[in-house]
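Support case: user asked for a sample of complex input and structure output to validate their parser. Sending the pair below.
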Amino acid sequence: MIRDRERREYALMLAPYLIGIAVLIALPGVVTFALALTEYDLIRSPRFIGLQNFRDLWNDEIFRTSIRNSLMFILFAVPLRLLGAVSLALLLHRRFRGAAGYRTAGYLPTVVPDVAYALLWLWIINPLYGPLNLALDAIGGPTPAWLTDPRAAQWAVILMSLFVIGEGFIVAMATRQGIPGELYELGDIEDATPLFMFWRVTLPFMAPTLLLLMFRDTIFSFQATFVPALIVTDGGPPPYATTYLPLFIYRNGFEYLRYGYASAATLVMFAMTAFIVYLQYRIVKRWRHAFVV
Amino acid sequence: MRSSNWRHLPAALIAVVFLLPLYFMLSGSLRQAGLPPPRTPELLPSPLAWGNYERAFELVDLPRYTLNSLFVVAVAVPLTLLTASWAGFAMARLPRRPAGALVALSLIALMIPLTALLVPRFAIFKELGVINTYVPLIAPAIMGTSPFYVLLFYWSFKRIPPELFEAARLEGLSPLATWRRVAMPLVRPVTVAVAVLCFVFTWGNFLDPLIYLFDQEKFTVPLGLRALSTLDRTNFPLLLAGSVAATAPVVVAFIFVQRYFLQEFRGAGWLGR
Amino acid sequence: MAGLRFSGVRKDYGEVRALQGLDLEVADGEFLVLVGPSGSGKSTALRTAAGLEEVTEGSIHIGDRDVTNMRPAYRNVSMVFQSYALFPHLSVEENIGFGLRARGVRPGPAKVKVLAAAQLVGCENLLERKPSQLSGGERQRVALARALVREPDVHLLDEPLSNLDAQLRVHTRAELKRLHQRVGATMVYVTHDQVEALTLGDRVAVLNEGVLQQLGAPDDVYRRPTNRFVARFIGSPAMNLFPATALDGSLQAGPFVFETRPNLPERVEVGVRPEHVKVTEGDEGAPAEVQVVEMAGNETYLHLSASGSPLVARVGADVRPPVGSIVHVRANPADAYLFDAETGETIS
């Protein structure tokens, strides 16, 4: 009898979370599937049109561009961000004087609200007034036209994403701190170089976490690009150089009121994500077997 | 003995690099609007134009927006702490199979980008008739805002020796009482961390207010900032002043609690393995 | 292979002084045990020898090299940690060969050495396994093999048997002794267990609160303790200690009365080991009430109370008086130890 009462309480404690997942994640998932097959502007009733949305997507030049843009972002931003997070973690995980301050500094940009962050960068990369180009000019470097040159604009978005690695940083740091210190003391005694210890001990221990971070970052890329694209580059410079998938979805849904079309695009985005994550998983698995000597 | 002295220089350099954007935000906000571009990047503009802040507050109702944001945060953060820690606790106390399934479910849910849920959630909330209210903004807090927070609590509760919970059980404590008297006091740092993370996320949340709020007076700070940017597109000092006003509360709160948040996790191995 | 010498080694952690002026010399090929309670500084001494901690003052020599400021890697020592510190993601073979690979020894020759070390400790059939698949005793052997494989000047062992269950510990003790006899390497062994110290060490160094109390062969430390601490720390059950009062030209200590001696300091204490407490059935000696009877297989420990003083006696297995009964105890003065109550030094 006591067990039953306990079970009920545990169920009660789980209820908000599970109901929330059902209503806010699972249900929208189902709705997306349904909407993708309709034409719907949220005013009139939805109209079933089968796979027409997908056919339209296939022919939509903007959609293809946005996929390319998103892929390009993932290709560069994810590894760079991971590298940044791990480097910060390995640099700052030990207790030394001022470490807390340095850690705070590393995390602080992540704390800034998205909009403020985007406006800030709009200022920083301003070709005429912005500190970035001014500084580059002062040291005689190139001063790209960040907002008007398509390539530069894409790199600006990538650059912006490199400063907000706070979560990855603390996750990597927590993992590194979880490795028993005695293993490194042993390395000291056995005359192992720091590089040797890194390859043989640190990296294998951190590998599962790094994998998780890589997955999460890939998925996160489909989110991180939204605000910068909306506020900083406005999807441009023409034609659509920084229109990433999230922006495409948002525009089609909330500005053109084509919710069915946007849902179809969402499904494609989700499929792509799953596929990329799966690819990463396979590649890393193969690499792990080769590398654990 | 392992010397950490060599870390100071690179760490200091990195700190400077990461603090630069914030510094630019501050210095840029103090420039006199309308001046011609400076020759070189100026460290501190002169004259210091505090007037930008005045103007920012005049053009859009920032104080009101701040209150709105505070209201949302004041509801969402405690609610999140409650539901996330409840769920994490229940998961930590369940037998292996159900707990494993729930963890897997959480991981999968974590993998879904919010932008993928924009459209369908909007449709759902529209059907419920709660568009243009704060309900859609607070709704995620009912499920702990993010599966990540639930997992954080789960991992922390898992680290507590189960004997403590068994002892509580023998004393006749119900699960809820155990959660309140035994579990939560032991995970203070994580609670602070989740509160901070949730605060940062909710305060800076732009997507949800963007699509759900239509009445200007209901705007939250990010939305207000965006409104400012559409009013005076090129007046950067003004926009930066607004940005600083939007960022300051979060930064201040973060600096106060970072000591719990960025603490050592030595020997814990609570992630990864 | 070489000896190890601590000269005036002091180690402070901020305000806390873990080691005070330690002077200790370990001969080449000797098995020395550092023994003492928690906080005695024994692990600290070991870690300074390894180079994992810096000395605040003093010097450390290995052979004739001054290694005080050398990094651990250059000291040519090995260490076995209490937790074994095995790499969970590497196989036994890779664990043992870790140091060799770190120094760039090629896989071929490395494997030969690994095999030899594994055979020495008896884990050659475990080479493919991972630490998670091994028992505690097996892991301990792997940790030992890893220390042996490099043939360093000095082996340092930090309570390597503490994590084993009692029976395994006894068995492994003997194996360690056998290993030392075969390999003949210099070994410095830290433990809090005085039985291990006595059975394993060629010599024993007793530490307390950072100060070396006594250095000597196990027999010396047991039979001729230099002070009260050593007398009570070594030997189980611990030596009985009584404050002594002079009474009509004799010394009364607890239930025992001994002849007094000239030139005694103001206050003395008398110690009698449990095995020297003779329990008689008859009326000889002082009466004592039996409070607890501990049966330890081949012997019995009697916890008695004699005129208010508690004492423990070690008797044969067949002596089992009922609780609450009165027995009589006496002791041979030649077996008793006199301590200065102030300084703790042994007088005789």
